[in-house]
Amino acid sequence: MAEVYSRRSFMVGVLSTGLLSSAAGYVLTRRDPVTLTLATGAEPTGGGRNLLITLWNELHPDITIVPREINSTTQDQFAKFTENRADIYNLDVIHI
Questions:
Q1: Would you give the DSSP letter of residue 85?
Q2: Left (φ > 0), alpha (ψ -120 to 50) or beta: where does 64 sit?
Q3: Which residues have C-beta within 8 Å of that of residue 59, sequence separation ≥ 6?
Q4: Do residues 73 and 21 make contact, with C-beta atoms less than 8 angstroms apart?
Q5: pLDDT, tens digit, for every residue of 58-90?
Q6: Residues 56, 63: Cα–Cα separation, whole Å
Q7: 39 with 90: CB under 8 angstroms?
Q8: 89-93 — which CB contacts under 8 Å span 24+ positions?
Q9: pLDDT tens for residues 18-61?
Q10: Within 10 A of 52 (CB to CB), how many other CB atoms are there?
Q11: pTM metric for this prediction
């Protein structure tokens, strides 16, 4: 006689398999630490952006962000940013 499985045991099996597969994938595919460079203008908020970057770096030690401040006005900001090599560019709204 064939055994009958309940939906509950099927869902437990599916969730267990998915959880173990994702955990194994995370452990086996971890990479070397990454440092991203953020090119940004002057910060008029009094340290808000630096606080967010510090919190990100504390919570994500494998992916850190290093800000590079480029002093410029809105007119020449795009030109100065493209001259400097960075991974992330924080432009004024007018250029986005």
A1: -
A2: beta
A3: none
A4: no
A5: 998 888 999 888 877 666 777 777 777 888 877
A6: 9
A7: yes
A8: 89/39, 89/40, 90/38, 90/39, 90/40, 90/41, 92/41
A9: 888 888 887 777 777 889 888 887 777 667 888 888 998 999 88
A10: 12
A11: 0.58
